[in-house]
Amino acid sequence: MSEFTKTLCPYCGVGCGLEVSPPAQHGKATNRDSQGTPIWRVRGDKAHPSSQGMVCVKGATIAESLDKNRLQYPMIRESLDQDFRRASWEEAFDLIAKRIQTVRFTQGPEAICMYGSGQFQTEDYYIAQKLMKGCLGSNNFDANSRLCMSSAVAGYIQSFGADGPPCCYEDLELTDCAFLIGTNTAECHPIIFNRLEKYRKKNRKVKLIVVDPRRTPTAENADLHLAIRPGTDIDLLNGIAHLLMRWNQIDVGFIDDCTSNFPAYAEVIRHYSPDVVAHRCGISVADLETAARYWGQSQRVLSMWSMGINQSSEGTAKVRTIINLHLMTGQIGKPGSGPFSLTGQPNAMGGREAGGLSHLLPGYRLVKNPQHRAEVENFWGLKPGQISSEQGMTAWDMITGLENGTVGLLWIAATNPAVSMPDLERTKKALLRSPFTIYQDAYYPTETSAYAHVLLPAAQWSEKTGVMTNSERRVTLCPAFRFPWWEAKADWEIFAEVGRRLGFTKEFAFANSAEVYAEFVQLTRDRPCDMTGMSHELLQTQGPTQWPFPSNNAESPVDTQHSKRLYTNLRFHTPDGRARFGAYHSRGLAEPPDPNYPFVLTTGRLYGHWHTQTRTGRIEKIRAMHPEPFIEIHPRDAASLGITDNQWLEVRSRRGKAKFPAKITKAIAPGTVFVPMHWGALWADEAEANALTHPESCPDSLQPELKACAVDLTPI
Ligand code: SF4
């Protein structure tokens, strides 16, 4: 038997397969970290179809983070100005159950909130939904995915009638033209970029268009880099559509047979002539025409995007405007083409399947749909009307709910909002007002633990068994390969125990996570994400598997062609089976620059770090790669401010300020500056990118515009 356990990298939504083995093996050298501590061996899993043995620096060094900075046992304090004291699980569970009951019967279930995470396994997500939305009757479960990909979810639902990325990674190696917009794939989804670049090296005719205000490592590899002004994505996309219409490079048959609302869209794009678009976007007409020509002349266009599109006050409109280009050219449902959102977190996709946002229910159902509520109530054995018909609070609603006293209990799990939320000073002040905050995490301290009344130690992915779904809808079983750290428990076990103490013993009578998963998949029956054929056992024997995977798949030879791509039959999940064009004019940035705040600040991620550094901040190799935060500024702007490289700048927005050393580079356009988002208060003084950002959100997805705000710069 192999000494290696197959699992999944728990960082990003690429979902690379890993193989891990214990530190000491007979006859083999022991792996050690830089302090000489023995660590688990990690290597890429060559048999994993998504990653084919590749890993980036985060996956390769994950073992170094396993035992660092861990929360060991429950801790409690009466108020935030006291020190924590050690508590037993018994005491912590008792206290939590009592507080939930008090809030439930004094303020109502709608005062109970849970803020979860794309780090959850699907079983964690599912039990949290059953507890919150089912048993307690509060739809106030939202996840940090709200800040990450909720615009993609809303865009898919509005255009196709259901969520779910239609493409697969194999499309990377079948496309004629990759159109990357609002994604620094080379740094943020490196293995996807590796696959694409390997293919392009062998197929020189394959074009790569990158749309990004920065000249990122992704853009450096492009055939065409369109460095548009921040907030002009819709102008650009409508401008490309205008040219395709003008050149008659549209698929009239597909538009007629498979779509609706094209006339309204055609009326909008009529206004986006090349000179208007080039002027608004700050690019040349020639470059705009080249982009349109690459689209029009390609048989198979694959567009990909992530935060640069989703984190926007018009995020859903941007997503739909990308999808429009695929609909007008018939580029969907066939190999090498389609609109493909790249998910940020390792299991944000599983969260979507399990209903892990405040407007969702398990199985890609919607809270506002009466039939969907009735189906879930019936399945859970609840009385009709138990699930609220109101959308629950989003992540930002919970912050404003703390401000206005409508939140009576906040339960935060596996995420670090004291770094990652917008308008951070306001967020922190709101967290200080919380009557009762439970913080459940594998790590301690974090920036958020300072705001908790109760700390609960959660088991890491390495210490519990569950599944995660990556961006190409591939589900991988992640078996526990270590004992839980000290007293840590799996997130789902913690939620289930609280549920039992609230009297829902039958609802949470699960012996293990395989039983949880078995129950969950039944709720996906006949839904777009049908995975009723999957089980822990099947995933163990068959390996990582894509959905849809209905139960009849498990009985017959697996038809992977059926699951690879969605919409191959060109029928969509809308009532009339047609995909809908969305007709949008560009609204631009929610906070454009002005004389008082003349620069646009854009935020992003670096190759080595993961989000708020809870893990990667403890890995020496990664710290050496990215030792400190910085602000990228164009030489022309640096000259006008009279600053030199590494000179410190104070950056002010309407909400807060931060300080960074300047990195003078032509990678950023004049008038725009860039700051990485990874540094919180634990790591650096006054270098929090989100001290500057604002919470203005997309009206459809309710995802905040974390990507851009107006700032002023002062040399210090
Ligand atoms: Fe992990 Fe993402 Fe890197 Fe793959 S690309 S090893 S999933 S961080």
Kindly list the characteristics that best describe this protein.
Barwin-like endoglucanases, Rossmann fold, metal ion binding, globular, Dimethylsulfoxide Reductase, domain 2, alpha/beta, 3 domains, 4Fe-4S, 6-stranded mixed sheet, binds iron/sulfur cluster, Mopterin_OxRdtase_4Fe-4S_dom, 28 strands, oxidoreductase activity, metal-binding, 716 residues
Describe the structure.
The chain is an alpha/beta fold and 716 residues long. The protein folds into three domains: 75-148 and 346-555, Rossmann fold; 150-342, Dimethylsulfoxide Reductase, domain 2, CATH 3.40.228.10; 599-715, Barwin-like endoglucanases (Beta Barrel), CATH 2.40.40.20. The chain is built from 26 helices and 28 strands. The strands form seven sheets. The chain has a seven-stranded mixed β-sheet, with helices on one face. A six-stranded mixed β-sheet has the order 24-26-25-28-23-27. The longest helix is centred in the first third of the chain and has 18 residues, at 89-106. It starts with a strand and ends with a strand. The structure holds iron/sulfur cluster (SF4). Iron/sulfur cluster (SF4) is lined by residues 9, 11-12, 14-16, 51, 55-56, 58-59, 189-191. Its cofactor is Mo-bis(molybdopterin guanine dinucleotide); [4Fe-4S] cluster. One of its GO terms (biological process) is nitrate assimilation. This is Molybdopterin oxidoreductase NarB. GO terms for molecular function: 4 iron, 4 sulfur cluster binding; metal ion binding; molybdopterin cofactor binding; oxidoreductase activity. It comes from Tolypothrix tenuis PCC 7101.
